[in-house]
């Protein structure tokens, strides 16, 4: 066994004759344990919250969304549709028409986006999971499904046949307008369902059938604003993107789930980094105790160090002893902290110890990434702290007894 490592392990395992030094050492070790456990618990909690948030968002997000870079809408010819379905990675796609509208009911108005979807939309997106009340719309009927926010603003219920909702879209054209009917295309519909996803989306979309949206906007046959694509299981994202791009051409942009929620991912990543840095600062403060503990141990072992020096140990060897002692203390404390943190997170995962609401436990996620982040952070900070403490050893200190 390495000489310095052997002595460092002996120093770490043995008690000092000075109880104050023992107390300082225990405090330093407990600080590292609690710091590592706290960092792991917070990262696991944030990972769970992240997954929870993204799961809700991804309920109506396809694997790919295709939009034209040349204009708001485009014509998808039957030939292109067939070629898309023949692509190895594509399982099916949904044609979508999306446009800003004015929604009006009983004198109340709000701005929203109409989203006309075909029958494949239900097979691509988990619409049943987001329905708050009612049912999903039927194709080729004047039915709509509104977000909870829109329904609240317009005081809408479900299947209230005595209360229709009017959707208005400005007509394209030139010249002076003398009649309201010349300015807007109108669509009267019955609300058959209310969805609830998140505050922003609940106030954004009104879903209707593809045919009704096409009529309202005066679109041509096979004219769409976007395509939503579902890939086959285990399909390669990059290969699918390349093949779809080859079929449609360079005038189209293909966005995956991450790109569709770029702002949300950026916000979550920023929050994750902020939480990590804050708790790393807590760890740094805890590791100051490790520095103090090692320095106190150096002073307590001066007689032993003098003996080691006289029998041939160099100053570098003696520094290595206390450097390794600090590293061992940090690593052992980090491992114990990770075990404690894992147990606490596992208890939350299994028994719902902390609840957000009476029916919703605080989400947590145990990931290998968080284990690695905490262990590497503890090890790096422990190495730095040990280096600082062991560098205090010099020839004068060892010889002066």
Any key phrases for this structure?
single chain, 401 residues, 2 domains, two-stranded antiparallel sheet, elongated
Output the radius of gyration: 32 Å
Q: Kindly state the mean pLDDT as a whole number?
A: 88
Sketch the topology as an H/E string, one letter per element: HHEEHEEHHEEHEHEHEHEEHEHHHHEEHH
Helix content: 40-55%
Q: What is the global morphology?
A: elongated
Taking the alpha carbons of the first and last residues, their distance comes to 29 Å
- Total strand count, please? 14
Number of helices: 16
Category from helices, strands and their pairing: alpha+beta
Strand content: 15-25%
User: In order across it, which strands form the biggest sheet?
Assistant: 3-4-9-6-8-7
Characterize the largest beta sheet: strand count, sense, and whether it forms a barrel: 6 strands, mixed, barrel
Q: Ranges with pLDDT <50 over ≥5 residues?
A: none
Domains, number: 2
Question: Could you walk me through the main structural features you see in this protein, from its secondary elements to its overall organization?
Answer:
With 401 residues, this protein is an alpha+beta fold. The chain is 55% helix and 21% strand. The chain folds into two domains: 3-57 and 264-399, no CATH class; 62-256, no CATH class. It has helices at 3-13, 19-57, 78-86, 121-124, 127-130, 148-154, 180-183, 199-202, 210-217, 237-248, 257-260, 262-300, 302-310, 315-351, 368-390, 395-399, and strands at residues 64-68, 74-75, 90-105, 108-117, 131-134, 143-147, 165-170, 184-195, 205-209, 223-224, 226-231, 252-256, 355-357, 360-361. The strands form three sheets. The protein has a six-stranded mixed β-barrel. A two-stranded antiparallel ribbon has the order 2-10. The two termini are 29 Å apart. The relative contact order is 0.19. The model has no long low-confidence stretch (mean pLDDT 88).
